[in-house]
Design goal:
Length: about 180
C-alpha cells in the first residue's frame, strides 16, 4: 500500500524521551508498540525506528521510540513520522482523504453517478467533489446526502437531494437560451 505521514516531531514531552507530533492528519489512530516507523523529511528519505508507545494528546500524538533518549530528540525535531498503512488501527469510523479519492459514487438504486475526485475540509462540514460526465458536483458530507461509505469496496452511496444537480455547470446550449 504505502506509507502515511502521521505527524511532525515538534518537541519533547516530559523527561522520558516522549515526543509530541503536530500536524497530525488523524489523531484517532492507534499504533501497536513494536511497529516500525520511518522518520525523515519523506518516507523515501528516512530512517527506521521502533515505536514503543503512541497516544492521543489534545489535537496531536505523543510517541516514544525504542533506544531514543532526550539527547537524540533535537536531531529528530521537524522531521515527519511515517508508518505503513496496514499498521494503522482506527478507533472510529474515520478514513483518510486518500481512501475517498477514486471511490465510485452510486445512487440508492446502485447506478453509477461518478467518482469522488477531491475533498474540501470546510468549517461546517466537509465537501466531497463528485465528478460526473456532466461536470462536478460538490457534495456536502451530511447524513441526507452521504448514505453509506464502503472503503474496502471503494463505493459511496449518495442521495442527490434537491438543488445539487443545479450546481452542475450549464452546457453551452443552455447559455445560448439566456
Amino acid at each position: 500500500m504505502g506509507y502515511r505521514n502521521i505527524g511532525t516531531i515538534s518537541r519533547t514531552h516530559g523527561t522520558s524521551g516522549a515526543m509530541i507530533l503536530t500536524q497530525c492528519p488523524d489523531t484517532s489512530i492507534h499504533i501497536k508498540p513494536g511497529t516500525q516507523v520511518l522518520i525523515g523529511f519523506s518516507a523515501s528519505f528516512s530512517k527506521p525506528y521502533t515505536l514503543t508507545s503512541c497516544e492521543t494528546y489534545k489535537q496531536s500524538l505523543i510517541i516514544t521510540l525504542n533506544n531514543v533518549s532526550m539527547n537524540d530528540i533535537s536531531d529528530l525535531k521537524d522531521n515527519g513520522v511515517f508508518i505503513e498503512e496496514t499498521a494503522l488501527l482506527r478507533t472510529d469510523d474515520n478514513y483518510f482523504i486518500s481512501d475517498l479519492i477514486g471511490c465510485s459514487g452510486m445512487d440508492e438504486q446502485g447506478n453509477l453517478l461518478g467518482t469522488i475526485t477531491d475533498v474540501w475540509i470546510m468549517p461546517a462540514n466537509d465537501v466531497w467533489v463528485l465528478s460526473m460526465p456532466e461536470g462536478d458536483i460538490p457534495l456536502p458530507v451530511i447524513d441526507d446526502v452521504i448514505l453509506s461509505v464502503d472503503i474496502p469496496k471503494k463505493q459511496i452511496t449518495i442521495r442527490l437531494i434537491d438543488g445539487l444537480r443545479d450546481l452542475l455547470p450549464k452546457s453551452s446550449d443552455d447559455s445560448q437560451l439566456d
